[in-house]
């Protein structure tokens, strides 16, 4: 496959075209749905649970977690590898299934986080408090709009604009699919519980990975490496490494730093779905170094 297969239209839309209806007009309804999904977990006391429900819950947890770590984060936010336009769209759909809004909104906000990490302007620095960093920032109203100026490299794709606008379609389809395959138990375990676990697992990188762990590199912020968070989030817990050199697909720089997202990306590369997977150079990996590229958001 060649890079030309992913070349977008040169026409860049205005910011309003990248913005979703839900993001601009439905903040209170979105918050209601968010807490309804949490409350839906309690219905498990009525439905009970079996082996199929546990498998459905964990399977959808892990595959959608990769949609965030390998798709929204390492591809859309940081462009750490290349892929075809078709697989790019599939990654975006998988990320939407994680119920964390659209790919352009997510990636643009994440680039803001790196630009202002633990400073004024950061979306979710724990310097403002644990709960702010963990989830309160989502409902503040400050960061509802897609920051088009930070994500113009992807706003030229009309299919991504559509998906960013109508991201809610994917979770609705997933919820209906869970109900179709296993009734109310499927909806509760495959969607409500799985999604709630997924949310709070990924949120720990914002709320905990800037507080607990070790700092190998001086990055000018509070980012930490945390082994347990890395296991929980498929490798995202090597957060100090990532803030030191964010242009790499690999966040576990050393062999003992388990980074499951990176292993999966290498597997996708082996079968030809992605290519040009970026590695951290030796000059950046050595503690005490500050390569100029480490400060780039993408």
Strand count: 2
The whole-angstrom Rg is 19 Å
Our count of domains comes out at 1
Shape: globular
Overview in brief:
This protein has helices at residues 15-18, 21-25, 27-40, 44-47, 51-77, 85-97, 103-115, 130-134, 158-165, 169-207, 227-232, 239-244, 260-270, 282-285, and strands spanning 82-83, 274-275. With 298 residues, it is an all-alpha fold. Helix 5 (51-77) crosses helix 10.
Write the layout of secondary structure elements.
Layout: H1 15-18, H2 21-25, H3 27-40, H4 44-47, H5 51-77, E1 82-83, H6 85-97, H7 103-115, H8 130-134, H9 158-165, H10 169-207, H11 227-232, H12 239-244, H13 260-270, E2 274-275, H14 282-285
Antiparallel strand pairs: 1-2
Helix pairs in contact: 3-10, 5-6, 5-7, 5-10, 6-9
Provide structural commentary:
- Helix content is 53%, strand content 1%.
- It is an all-alpha fold and 298 residues long.
- It has one domain.
- A two-stranded antiparallel sheet has the order 1-2.
- Helix 5 (51-77) crosses helix 6 (85-97).
- The longest helix has 39 residues, at 169-207.
- The radius of gyration is 19 Å and the shape is globular.
- Mean pLDDT is 89; it is low at 1-17 and 291-298.
């Amino acid at each position: 496959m060649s890079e030309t297969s992913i070349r977008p239209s040169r026409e860049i839309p205005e910011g309003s075209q990248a913005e979703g209806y839900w993001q601009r007009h439905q903040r209170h309804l979105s918050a209601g749905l968010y807490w309804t999904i949490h409350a839906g977990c309690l219905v498990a006391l009525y439905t009970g649970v079996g082996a199929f429900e546990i498998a459905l819950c964990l399977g959808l947890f892990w595959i959608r977690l990769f949609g965030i770590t390998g798709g929204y984060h390492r591809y859309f936010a940081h462009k750490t590898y290349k892929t075809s336009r078709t697989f790019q769209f599939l990654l975006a759909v998988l990320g939407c299934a994680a119920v964390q809004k659209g790919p352009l909104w997510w990636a643009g906000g994440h680039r803001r986080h790196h630009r202002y990490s633990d400073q004024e302007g950061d979306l979710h620095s724990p310097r403002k408090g644990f709960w702010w960093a963990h989830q309160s920032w989502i409902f503040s109203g400050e960061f509802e709009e897609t920051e088009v100026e930070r994500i113009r490299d992807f706003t030229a794709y009309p299919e991504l604009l559509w998906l960013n606008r109508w991201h809610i379609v994917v979770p609705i389809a997933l919820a209906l699919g869970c109900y179709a395959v296993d009734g109310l138990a499927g909806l509760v375990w495959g969607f409500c519980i799985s999604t709630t676990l997924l949310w709070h697992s990924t949120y720990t990188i914002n709320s905990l990975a800037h507080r607990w762990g070790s700092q190998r590199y001086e990055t000018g912020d509070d980012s930490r490496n945390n082994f347990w968070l890395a296991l929980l989030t498929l490798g995202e817990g090597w957060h100090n490494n990532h803030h030191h050199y964010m242009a790499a697909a690999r966040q576990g720089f050393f062999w003992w730093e388990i980074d499951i997202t990176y292993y999966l990306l290498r597997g996708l590369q082996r079968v030809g779905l992605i290519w040009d997977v970026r590695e951290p150079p030796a000059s950046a990996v050595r503690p005490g170094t500050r390569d100029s590229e480490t400060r780039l958001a993408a």
